[in-house]
Amino acid sequence: MPRKKEALTLSVPPETKEQLEAIALRLGIFWGKSPSVSGLLVAIAQHKLEVGEPFTLNSTEVAALQQGIRLLIDSGYVEQARSVSQLLVSRGNLAAPLRQSLLQQVIQPTAAWRIAEEYINDAQPFLVLYRTPKGENLAYTARYAEISFEEKRFYLEIWCEETDDIKNPDYPELIHNRCLRFDRIQSIVKTDGKWRDEGLDYVKVYLHFYSGMVNAYDPRARDISNEVVGDIRQVVRNVSNPFWLMREVSRYWEDCVIVSPDSVRDRFQQKLIALCRQYNLEIRD
């Protein structure tokens, strides 16, 4: 036996009825082929639709969205990250500390990116206040800078005057270079002095690629030369930070060899020896 329904009469202006029907149409609530206002009211009464109150998120959802915001920022989509953050702050039922954290997560790297880009375009030296992963605050005087992309994240590379923070440099010729994460930059302000037209410092690294990498190698912007000689692809590249080069080479295994300079080759060799020891492999001369 069908359930008895009670009639409910609403007295609303014509424009309000049209607005309610438009909402029902957008939400796919119909009576036959027409949008149903009564169906919309039933959905609200049954809590199938949220009206007025902000939506709530559990801890897992918040963590996922925070990670998504970080990935957007790291990939250079700062405006999209700002949009997601503003949606969460304005519409989400978030505790005050989390609201502040979300705002800071977007505002800080976005502001640093915008200011750094402006100063780079104007060839304007600037001061950077930077917080290290250990929580130490360092100040750098940047005489040159550029924004680079490494392993799915954008970084600010600078040539700075300060060198005391590096006690035992592996590469003395690169001691003025720094590679900074935008989310750890606390502030950027312009300073006096000249812009360094020479750019970053570099070491010239010679690489040999073998086997499948002869054809699969993807040229880099800082490659000086790139040619195939016999069955070897020989690449010469300006390198500002060997850390990233070693991470790249390690992905190619035996298909890539650092030929020179000895400082970079020896450092990579040390890492290979340490890796072998981790796996209890005997190293013989």
Topology, please?
Layout lengths: L13 H14 L2 E2 L2 E2 L1 H9 L13 H16 L3 H14 L4 H26 L4 E6 L5 E14 L2 E8 L16 E5 L3 E6 L12 E7 L3 H4 L6 E7 L2 E8 L2 H11 L3 E5 L1 H17 L7
Antiparallel strand pairs: 1-2, 3-4, 3-7, 4-5, 5-6, 8-10, 8-11, 9-10
Helix pairs in contact: 3-4, 3-5, 4-5
What is the assembly state of the chains in this entry?
Answer: single chain
Q: How much of the residues is beta strand, in percent?
A: 15-25%
Proportion of residues in helical segments: 25-40%
Q: What's the pLDDT, averaged over the residues? A: 85
* Rg, nearest Å: 29 Å
The secondary-structure class comes to: alpha+beta
Provide a concise account of the structure shown:
By secondary structure, this protein is an alpha+beta fold. The chain has helices at 14-27, 37-45, 59-74, 78-91, 96-121, 213-216, 242-252, 262-278, and strands at 30-31, 34-35, 126-131, 137-150, 153-160, 177-181, 185-190, 203-209, 223-229, 232-239, 256-260. The chain has four domains: 14-45; 59-114, no CATH class; 121-190, SH3 type barrels (Roll), CATH 2.30.30; 203-278.
Can you give a write-up of this model?
The mean pLDDT is 85. This protein has a five-stranded antiparallel sheet with strand order 6-5-4-3-7. Strands 9-10-8-11 form a four-stranded antiparallel sheet. It has a two-stranded antiparallel ribbon with strand order 1-2. It has helices at residues 14-27, 37-45, 59-74, 78-91, 96-121, 213-216, 242-252, 262-278, and strands spanning 30-31, 34-35, 126-131, 137-150, 153-160, 177-181, 185-190, 203-209, 223-229, 232-239, 256-260. It contains eight helices and eleven strands. It is elongated and about 90 Å long. With 285 residues, it is of the alpha+beta class. It has four domains: 14-45; 59-114, no CATH class; 121-190, SH3 type barrels (Roll); 203-278. 17% of the residues are buried. A hairpin with a 2-residue loop joins β4 and β5 (153-160). The longest helix has 26 residues, at 96-121. 39% of the residues lie in helices and 25% in strands.
